Amino acid sequence: MTMPTRLQQEIAGRILQLVRDDALDAGAWLNENATARRLGVSRTPVRAALDHLAEQGIVRRHLNKGIEILKLPAASDSALPPEAIDLAMVRLAHERENGLLPDEVSELEVMRRYELGRPEAQKLLARLADLDMVERKPGYGWRFLHEPRDKRLRDESYRFRMVIEPMCMLEPGFHLEPGWIAEMRARHIEALQRPWRESSSIAFYEMNADFHEGLAAATGNRYFHSAVRRQNQLRRLSNYDWGLGFERVQVNCTEHLAMLDHLEAGENEVASALMRSHLLRASKLKLGTRQVETTE
Fold it and tell me: Is the full-model pTM beyond 0.70?
């Protein structure tokens, strides 16, 4: 067993904390890409940290399927404090999407508003930057890259997606790896079984984004993939500020699973029709407003 670096040990601890925060048990699955996005780091150190956990018998990597959790060490085994960044990010998303945050913020403002230490505030901002939601200003401060929630822009986005995403499944070169289907199905089933918490909106959205981007990537057409990825970037904060409750999570997961079933059966036209109706229904939802405490 090779000795892990300090960075690998830190990321391994953060991965275990995410697993606990999401109430995952042995037998659940992790996705390397989604984990890297949530931690705000690249895939390389996450892969190394997961390999370290695999050497300890905590997880097992399955080719073309994902990472299976085998067991969970007791919380006391981790030297890291409980993860507060996800909850702070949900609060930030709510305030930004409801016009309570300006276009530019400072690290000190993030620390003050969300009661974070400097390291945690830096990690939060780094995650937002890695997800293309903010950028560092020359000299000092951070700038949001996208406008807050706007009904007109939301309507335009859904109209665009209803044109693009159903057609992805009808592309001549469309192909999904069986391992991707199995992994995505497992993640959706876990989402339906997992207790819903305020911070759960982040993991739920990232799974949702992976689903839509994965279908676009299966076309083999970089323009489809790029367009869907860009839409996911634009709607990320508004979905972190989830106000539709767990009932809508159940509907979303059920509709995604139905599409997977038809795609696996080779019924792409049916799956395409389901995607269009899925997006149409979502476009007509009246966005809920979560009640959260603010520092103002």
Answer: no
